Amino acid sequence: MKNIFLKMIICVLPICANTLLASAAHRPIPNLSTSSIRFASVVDVIDVNKLSLRAGTSTTFNSIGQLIAQNTLGTPVSTTTENWETLDGTATIYNYSGAKVQYFGGKMYGYIITSSNWSVGQQGGPYIKVGNNLSTVSTLLPNYNSNKINGTLTAPISKNGVATDSYLYIEFNTSTSIITKISIKDY
User: Fold this and answer.
1) Three-class DSSP category at 81
2) What is the pLDDT along the chain (187 residues), one digit of tens a residue?
3) Among 39, 41, 44, residue whose Cα is nearest residue 158
4) How many Cβ atoms are within 10 Å of 143's Cβ, its own excluded?
5) Over the Cα atoms of the chain, what is R_g?
6) What are phi and psi of 132, to 5 degrees?
7) Greatest extent of the chain over all pairs of C-alpha atoms, in Å
8) Is 75 helix (H, G, I), strand (E, B) or coil?
9) Closest by alpha carbon to 171, among 106, 120, 109, 105?
10) Is the peptide bond before 142 cis (omega within 30 degrees of 0)?
11) 36 DSSP assignment
């Protein structure tokens, strides 16, 4: 039975192919116009080696992927652990007033900022924080208007020019353009 079916396919396939080619030969190829092509917007990419998390006004350090003593940020309100199956291990979450900082393998992995007591920026400044107007993001992300959608601004993070799975997320109130949350997460 398999042989009969296979012979039928082998016999029919050239007929179908010839029919398709013949009909395509009589159809005109549409002209393409570059005016109908939309190009992607310019997207700001942040190098993790230049990104800093700041607690208050004095503690500044390089953040993601760095070996950082957890006490650098002060004493957390609480500490929890989470099983991260995707990384095959356990993460430690340090809960501060207005921020959660995630550590995995002794390195800072990400954070969620919900208070103006914390800020994110390039080492040496400028910094952005919760409560700022979204326009202040332009100092860190000059093309920020092309990266926002539905109350969230995203910027991919690279390390030494190589793309990572992490993104800087800045959430804002769409009516007032006030920043409500800043976080770094894997996509």
Assistant:
1) strand
2) 444 443 444 444 444 444 444 444 445 444 444 444 444 456 788 777 777 787 776 555 555 555 455 556 777 899 999 998 888 899 889 898 899 988 888 777 888 999 998 888 877 778 899 999 999 988 888 888 888 889 999 888 888 888 888 888 999 999 999 999 999 887 5
3) 44
4) 12
5) 26
6) -75, 155
7) 80
8) coil
9) 120
10) no
11) G
d(CA 139, CA 161): 20
Beta bridge partners of residue 103, listed in sequence order: 92, 108
Residue 67 sits at φ, ψ, to 5 deg, of -75, 115
**How many residues in total does the chain contain?**
187
Cα 39 to Cα 96: distance, rounded to the nearest angstrom: 42
Break the chain into its structural domains and give their ranges: 46-186
Residue 140 DSSP code = T
Residue with tokens 């800043």: 182
Question: H or E element: which one contains 19?
Answer: helix 2-25
Q: Which amino acid is at 2?
A: K
